[in-house]
Amino acid sequence: MLMNGSAVSQFTLLGLSNSRPLQLLLFALVSACYATSLVGNLLIVVTVWVDPGFLQSPMYFFLANLSLIDMSLGSVAAPKMLRDLMSQVSTISYGGCMAQLFFLHFLGGSEMFLLTLMAYDRYVAICHPLSYPDIMRHHCCLGLLASCWAGGLLHSASQLVLVTRLPFCGPNKLDNFYCDVPQVVRLACTDTYVVEILMVANSGLISLVCFLALLGSYGVILVTLRGRFGGGEGWKALSTCSAHLMVVSLIFVPCVFVYLRPFSSSQMDKMASLFYTIITPVLNPIIYTLRNREIKDAIRRLAHKPGFRCWT
Fold first, then answer.
1. Domains in the chain, ordered, with CATH?
2. Which residue from 50, 51, 110, 180 lies 20 to 30 Å from 22 (Cα-Cα)?
3. What pLDDT does 308 receive?
4. Is the confidence at residue 246, as pLDDT, over 90?
5. Which has the closest alpha carbon to 77: 52, 61, 96?
6. Residues 6+ positions from 114 with CB-CB distance below 8 Å
């Protein structure tokens, strides 16, 4: 069966380990992470959705969308990984591999743009508080959010075009636990130098530029907050921004590590991939809920609602 004019119709995923005890341990850990990610992010979405004040607040509106992306992003690789760890049959069809690659970059790109938008929202709220209600009106927030999703779609589509134009005629062993551009490109039976350069320009530079823009935004915010620590306002804003900055670092640092150095291959690439596909979606809701008193109070109120108690 030929795919894309090549002899490869499926790929073999080498995964993280061939040791059966370690595979079972990984299955337990990934299961716990995936379940925690789904429950934690869903709780944030429901909390924001049922609270009219949160839903009208740009910061919490964007946070709910971040949680939606995290739930979806965690579901791209984790279910397949869990099945492979239990069955020890780690294969994926060509079409399934391309679909996994597409959704990984679509959701990952959208998340990067959304985090940049969230940094802009905090910048306007802290540095230009009087203009904030006019700048971040609800319909403007919807338009900015749609731009994030559109940017993620454009980024992912360009990655998919780069990969599907390559011929694959063997070998078909992917040195990872899911399909991603760097590992798939290395299997092409043609010179991929130009493709890898384009990949760096696409994924790597997008990650780096967004990360530097975020750091610049928070640098300005810290300078603005410097004289406000005498009261509670400055500390509250700093707590919110520090939580956001922690999430940003957890996502962007592994991505920059993987996509700015596509010509190398190491076990560290697998660890970085595991971190931002499995672990980061778990840490995001934990970081935001533990460091945000308003979210914690809203979750407590939600837990005491009769309908929620019956549902749980």
1. 10-301 (1.20.1070.10)
2. 180
3. 53
4. no
5. 96
6. 62, 65, 66, 69, 145, 148
Give me the phi and psi of 246, to 5 degrees please. Answer: -65, -45
Q: Which two tokens stand for residue 89?
A: 């049959």
pLDDT tens per residue, range 280-299: 888 878 877 766 777 777 77
β-bridge mates for residue 174, sequence order: 13
**Residues 238/122, Cβ–Cβ less than 8 Å:** no
Whole-number Å distance between alpha carbons of 156 and 103: 7
| pTM to 2 decimal places | 0.86
CB neighbour list of residue 95: distance below 8 Å, 6 or more residues apart = 3
Q: How far is the C-alpha of 134 from the C-alpha of 156, rounded, in Å?
A: 33
Residue 172 above 80 pLDDT? yes
Report residue 263 as tokens: 């010509």
Phi, psi of 31 (to 5 degrees): -60, -45
Statement: residue 228 has pLDDT above 70: no
Please tell me the total number of residues recorded for the chain in this structure. 312
CA distance 212 to 115: 12
Q: Distance between CA 155 and CA 203 in Å, rounded?
A: 8
Residue for token pair 């130009």 = 194
Three-state SS for the chain is: CCECCECCCEEEECCCCCCHHHHHHHHHHHHHHHHHHHHHHHHHHHHHHHCHHHHHCHHHHHHHHHHHHHHHHHHHHHHHHHHHHHHCCCEEEHHHHHHHHHHHHHHHHHHHHHHHHHHHHHHHHHHCCCCHHHHCCHHHHHHHHHHHHHHHHHHHHHHHHHHHCCCCCCCCEECCCCCCHHHHHHCCCCCCHHHHHHHHHHHHHHHHHHHHHHHHHHHHHHHHHHHHCCCHHHHHHHHHHHHHHHHHHHHHHHHHHHHCCCCCCCHHHHHHHHHHHHHHHHHHHHHHHHCCHHHHHHHHHHHCCHHHHHHC
Q: pLDDT > 70: what percent of the chain? A: 87
